[in-house]
Design goal:
single chain, alpha+beta, GIY-YIG endonuclease, 5 domains, 8-stranded mixed β-sheet, 5-stranded mixed β-sheet, 20 helices
């Protein structure tokens, strides 16, 4: 183990090798972090055995002065104790789920004849809260459906037995329009009202089939008693519930009672997601981001969020569906890591939601705080591309030639991850072998010419050079940089298009970045830009070359004169449409006459 400092080394050497929790404190004995471990000594040692890319971990490790531990009999005990201590002590460097005050909850009050409504505040412990829900729209739809099926009171009267007996209240408008059965005026019993509340709880929990069965039994009872109007009303309620059921997110009827957890890391952030599934329906969702924590293993994050979210939502599902095995498991639970089938589909659906959430957050940040967004991108690129400094200025190169003609190379420039089009450049290639340009020789020539000029004119060197191509093009570019003494001053990579392989100097193994990676998106963007820019210029040169070839067929018209005509008029068509007098001003009367006669003769035979 590398020596961090003598005090920490001594403390680590004496740590127990058993399950438990550990606490890190700073110089002033302020609590920094609480962690759980199957083996305390092994886990704590890992913090000091390597360099951390994460700024959060770098700062944490630097501040640690004292380590305290609590040993417990089992790993499960460590998990539960860690969760309880984090909740009560809230250390700065631990995972804390973001405040979900913006998410709506459904509330059932604790009183005689309870009320049902939605709120964004979860501040009365005695009330029952269900949620949170992903949007107000989904909550409104659910509450409207509930109130259509089971009329409820909305008043704030104190409906004590004494007040109702004294007839203190009179039925309001809700009663007369069928939205309430007026328990305030003793027109509905407390027993009937509470039965309805029990059915409402089942609807909220996604147990729709049970409620439909309950209503069906009531309908049959009404028919049996010849209460056909009542039976029709109950039938309408069943249809309403079935209509709501059809609008709900159906996953698979085979998934009866489960929780789904997923982790997604993107651009130095970790996103966590949760679905609650009952009888094939997603009845609850939760998505949150944890700033940082990208170095924390997914299995550690999963074990932490499972404990936190089960407590948060008072969940007791017997099955947990997740992408990999968590580092700590709760007892008496079935852990499913699906590779295919409906459970894999629901995991993929949750991942897709996390990806979308992350992209929305990135776009919002880019609009609200472009500087922070750019800084995060630069940090991520520096890490992904193994750089020592941020790639604030990137220059990319691509060669264009078709069948060995009109070879050109192009350079695109990105500053802070965005195109700087005024700095784009073209290079007309001079290196030609056996009448044809060689791709590697072209790359050598263009890189040498570009950076020789940069040195001579004292222009800014790029932080990163991107070569469009594979190992061969990268090697060619490096040869020229070595000649100029720049091989250690500029970071160079190449990207091969077929598999999006990124090659580094002196490394035969390419890097494959995640297709969703912001770093790869920037590299692809600049690669596509330089290719587009080079092809556009190449086409212009080919067109101009073709025009020149036609003009050179004419007696007395040389290359310089053909170029002059094209520069003046822009195209063959424009030259053809000029008057002889106008052409004579450029090439003289004799040559103007030759040009006009040529095009007139050509038009007669075409």
């Amino acid at each position: 183990m590398s020596t961090f400092n003598n005090e920490i080394d001594i403390q680590i050497q004496t740590l127990p090798e058993v399950p438990g929790i550990y606490k890190f404190y700073d110089t002033h004995h302020h609590l920094l972090y609480i962690g759980k471990a199957k083996n305390i000594k092994k886990r704590v040692s890992s913090y000091f055995q390597k360099e951390h890319d994460s700024l959060r971990l770098q700062l944490l490790v630097k501040k640690i002065k004292t380590i305290e531990t609590i040993t417990v009999p089992t790993e499960y005990d460590a998990l539960i104790l860690e969760n309880a201590l984090i909740k009560s002590l809230q250390p700065k460097y631990n995972i804390q789920l973001k405040d979900d005050k913006t998410y709506p909850w459904i509330v059932i009050t604790k009183e005689r004849f309870p009320k049902v409504f939605y709120t964004r505040k979860k501040n009365i412990p005695s009330f029952e809260y269900f949620g949170p829900y992903p949007s107000v729209t989904s909550v409104r739809l659910l509450i409207e459906t509930i109130k259509e099926i089971f009329p409820l009171r909305t008043c704030n009267y104190l409906l004590s037995e004494e007040n109702i007996l004294k007839k203190k209240f009179r039925p309001c408008l809700d009663y007369h329009i069928g939205k309430c059965k007026a328990p305030c005026a003793a027109l509905q019993t407390e027993e009937e009202y509470n039965q309805n509340i029990q059915q409402i709880k089942k609807i909220i929990k996604g147990q729709l089939k049970e409620v439909i069965n309950y209503l069906e039994s009531q309908k049959q009872e009404a028919v049996k008693n010849l209460e056909f109007e009542k039976a029709q009303q109950i039938k309408t309620k069943i249809e309403l519930l079935q209509k709501y059921q059809a609008k709900s997110q159906v996953v698979s009827a085979d998934i009866k009672d489960a929780e789904v957890y997923q982790v997604y890391k993107y651009n130095q952030k970790t996103y966590i997601g949760y679905f609650r599934i009952v009888n094939g329906f997603i009845i609850q969702t939760f998505i949150s981001d944890l700033s940082g924590f990208t170095e924390e293993p997914d299995e550690e994050i999963l074990s932490t969020i499972i404990t936190k979210l089960r407590e948060k939502f008072s969940d007791n599902a017997p099955e947990i569906i997740l992408p990999l095995e968590p580092s700590f498991q709760l007892p008496d639970l079935k852990y499913t890591i699906p590779k295919m089938g409906d459970k894999k589909k629901i995991l993929d659906l949750l991942l897709k939601n996390l990806e979308q959430y992350a992209l929305e957050k990135e776009k919002q940040l880019a609009i609200k705080d472009p500087e922070t967004h750019t800084n995060q991108l630069m940090q991520q690129m520096m890490k992904d591309l193994r750089m020592k400094k941020e790639p604030r200025r990137i220059e990319a190169f691509d060669n264009s030639n078709i069948q060995g003609t009109n070879a050109v190379s192009a350079m695109a420039v990105f500053i802070d991850g965005k195109p700087a089009k005024k700095e784009y450049r073209h290079f007309n290639v001079k290196t030609v072998e056996n009448g044809k340009p060689d791709d590697f020789s072209t790359m050598k020539e263009v890189i040498y010419r570009r950076y020789k000029r940069v040195l001579e004119e004292n222009l800014p060197l790029p932080d990163l050079i991107v070569i469009d191509g594979g190992k061969g093009q990268l090697h060619a570019a490096l040869e020229s940089l070595k000649k100029l003494g720049l091989q250690d001053k500029v970071h160079v990579i190449s990207i091969a298009k077929r598999l999006e392989e990124i090659f580094f100097p002196n490394d035969s193994v390419p890097l494959y970045l995640d297709k969703r990676s912001p770093t790869l998106k920037v590299i692809q963007h600049i690669r596509d830009e330089v290719h587009r820019f080079g092809i556009t210029h190449h086409r212009k040169r080919r067109t101009k070359s073709a025009f020149q070839s036609e003009l050179l067929k004419l007696k007395g018209i040389g290359e310089k004169l053909a170029t002059r005509l094209l520069t003046e008029f822009g195209s063959i068509e424009q030259i053809k449409n000029q008057s002889e007098h106008h052409l004579a001003k450029i090439v003289g009367a004799a040559k103007a006459k030759i040009i006009k006669e040529y095009f007139e003769k050509k038009d007669r035979f075409t």
